[in-house]
Every structure is written in C-alpha cells, then in structure tokens.
Fold this protein.
Amino acid sequence: MRKSVLRNGVALGLINIIRNGVHDGGMMIDTNGNMFVQIQSGTNHLFTTALYGSSPRYFFSSSGDDYYHFFALGLGTRFNCHKFSFDIEALFYNTLCKDVIDIGDEIHDIINKYEDDGKSFSDDASKEDKDMVENLAEQFHKYTYPSLRFSVSYNLLSHFSLFATAGVDIRIKDWNDEAFDYGKRNMYIDFTAGSKDVTLYPSFGFGVKIR
C-alpha cells in the first residue's frame, strides 16, 4: 500500500491512497454474462487496477467441475473532461478453475512428499520429481491472457459514476488456449501475426463506480 499527496504524478502499488487521485471501486456486467468488481487507485497519469469476475452462477461459489473465476491486475491512465473521464488500461488475467487447482495440488503433493519426511525438496528431490514440478508449473501460463480495455465514465453525482467499457482479450494459439475454455465469449476476430494464429475476443460492459 502506498500513501501520497500526488494528483497527476506516478504512484506504483497495488493500492495507492492519494489525495485527489484515483480511488474508485466499481461493479459491472459484460456482454459475455460475467460480473466483475474492481478497484482502481493511483493518479490520473498512472493507476493500478485489480479486478475479479465470474458468471453470476459461480461468483460466490466453486462447486462442480466447470466453475471459473477471473483475476486481473493492470495499469491504466485517465483523461478527464468536465463530468466525463476516459480510461485506457492494459490488464493481465489469470483463470482460476478446477484444472489449475489440480495442477497446484499435484505440485503440492510432490513437494510435501519430501517435507513430510523432514527433507528439503530443493536439496533432496530426485531429478524426476524436479522435472515433473517444473513441467507442471509451466502449465499455469496456459490459463492466463492479456487484455486491453477502454472505458468512459460519467460523473452522475459527486461520488457516483456510471461507466461503459470496450475490451479485447487476446488468445495466442498453443500458448494460452486453455484460458478460453472457460466462460462464454460471443464475438471473436481471427488473424495471423507472423507465424502465430491470434484470436481477439471483444466484449462490452456497463457498471457503476463509487469514487
């Protein structure tokens, strides 16, 4: 956490408490049917965004085999114009789902096998187990994806705003395919960048902010 009296400078931290800066809490729903809550904090020049979302069915639950939760961190900048403000953000999402939990549990079980015997995994583990843990850990990136988001807010009251977003999630074939097995996406654009097949998933959102 960072405290400051800046307004338009730069403050880096997950939560920034800045006089006259950006400190917004919000909730939104997007055109894919997901609900999100978010916190933005920092300055107009540079603020951080922390975001959590899922479908209404799984927002407070992790039951069944097809649940999913989205967690994102990112950086943004804001432009103000009278009662309107415009945000541009770069976000990085992680998908928490049963497959990710299973990978984590498998890593945990391998490491605990040594710790339960009073040994150190880093010092005493066999090459086979170390390679297995390394290979499992490399699977996590398949459940992540970058995203770009543009939003416009209208300051309806002194501490209450309505906002709308337009975002695009980025899928790179054979790199993060698994992240897109979860949730519904209604629109997509396919193209090739160099030797990579890329799919963009646009979406739109609407919500409220408390400032």
The mean pLDDT is 90. The chain has one domain: 2-112+141-210. The radius of gyration is 20 Å. The chain has three helices and eleven strands.
